[in-house]
Amino acid sequence: MFLTILLILVTLTILYLYIFKYKYKYWERHGIPYSTPVFPYGNIILGKELHWGQQTLRDYLKFKDQSPIYGGFRMVTPCVYVTSPELAKSMMIKDFHSFYGRGMYENYRDDPLSAHLFNLSGPRWKKLREKLTPVFTTGKIKYMMPTLTKVGENLVEALSDEVKIESTVDMKEWIARFTTDVIGTVAFGLECNSLKDPEAEFRKQGKRVLSEMNPLKILMALNFPKFSRDALHLTITPKDLTAFFLKAVEDTVNFREENNIQRNDFMDLLIKMRNKDKSNDFDKDQDKEGFSLYEMAAQAFIFFVAGFETSSTLTSYTLLELALNPELQTKARNHINEVLKKHNNELTYEALQDMTYIEQCMNESLRKYPTLALLFREATEDYPIPEINYTIKKGTFCLIPSYAFNHDPELWPEPSKFDPDRFENFTTAMGHEKGFYPFGEGPKNCIGERFGKIQTKLGLVMILKNFELMKSEKTEFPVKFNTTIALLAPKNPIYIKMEKL
């Protein structure tokens, strides 16, 4: 017993010395300022009082004048936080070849839905990106406009009935139901009906995607991907959620092929690239062209999740700010009506494109509430930073702090103020100078940016055109964020009082 206890104490002492006296002194040895880690999480700590993005803002303001980067730890592994918008731009655009990956976890064999475009890197990502790009062209989105507009009309009808009963509504929930119906229609060709039925299956499953993700499993997978994949067969997506989306895709594909149905939407493109000879066994199939059913499901899954969650959050934050700023709301509504007059009162793709003030409101909301508080990149080769005599080593996880850039008072005066006029005559170059990357940047930017903007703008227009928005006694402001996930999502409902115009 004595020897056993002695062995345990010696092992713990060695572990302590290795982690705290060696691993956690990495940045100190290199003369780089760093954020003090907390074992075992390092600096990536979810579930605290402040959101990860807010924690990063605190460290960013402390270190930004000392160095273009500061150090952190993903558990016990060193990672880099960028404090220079110029360096961030170089990493995402000019020197993209040095930061080809995102450092995310995917496990095709055990967790097929994880092998989607956001998680992949290297040649597999490049090939997939090239195949999927055609679905998000202007022409494709124009073709989808009647479908999108119909769902927008359903939103107005459902909200009109709701405010007769209760004038204060949870805007986040209603917009999430709207975007669920939009994505369900264009990605799966299904009438989700979540606007009419909040317990509709797609809405229920969509809620689970983020709420049931386990932060500890994610950290384990990110830090030890090979061990997690090959030894533990670790899965991030709940198995029954995987089964639901696999069946939804399989049923849609079979129905369309059996009935020769073409809708010129996201699922159509996947079907055209399907390879029925693929067996869903990655080892056997990796050299074959086209998509297996599992690969199709993974892309439809991320399109669904990214499409409904990010757009609903952006739309809700924008409507909240306009409800709190009546003069800006009136300006936005007048702008909508003026543009519609020029387009014969038809809500077309071109009309939405002409609504520049609505775009300004969206951009200001994206600045104040960036969907991804941090953008991720992984060094695919050694990358020297001459001004501090340090080289980012191959394989290092790098974080570009969007939330911190967007709340830096030197880059954005009065950062807590909602001011859409910041984006009048705004250019991409100005965005790079100020670290404004709402959809990422460079070759790995969000492939669905154009679709996401149109979907969001449509939701904003339909509501502002038909309803007056006001602060309610239940309205919570400033917004409290859900600190258990990386997305900058609200912790509580976004209550807004509505009156039909």
Polypeptide structure, described:
The protein is α+β, with helices and mostly antiparallel strands and 501 residues long. Helix content is 52%, strand content 8%. The protein contains 20 helices and nine strands. The protein has a four-stranded mixed beta sheet. Strands 3-9-8 form a three-stranded antiparallel beta sheet. It has a two-stranded antiparallel ribbon with strand order 5-6. Helix 6 runs parallel beside helix 20. The chain is globular. The termini are far apart. The relative contact order is 0.15. The model has no long low-confidence stretch (mean pLDDT 90).
Q: Average pLDDT value?
A: 90
Termini separation comes to: 79 Å
> What's the main sheet like?
4 strands, mixed
Instruction: Please give the share of residues in helix.
Output: 40-55%
The number of E-state strands comes to 9
Radius of gyration: 24 Å
The structure class reads alpha+beta
Q: Order of strands side by side in the largest beta sheet? A: 1-2-7-4
SS field, number of helical segments: 20
Shape: globular
Strand content: 5-15%
Please mark out the parts with pLDDT under 50 across 5 or more consecutive residues, or reply none: none
The helix/strand series, from N terminus to C terminus, equals: HHHEEHHHEHHHHHHHHHHHEEEEHHHEE
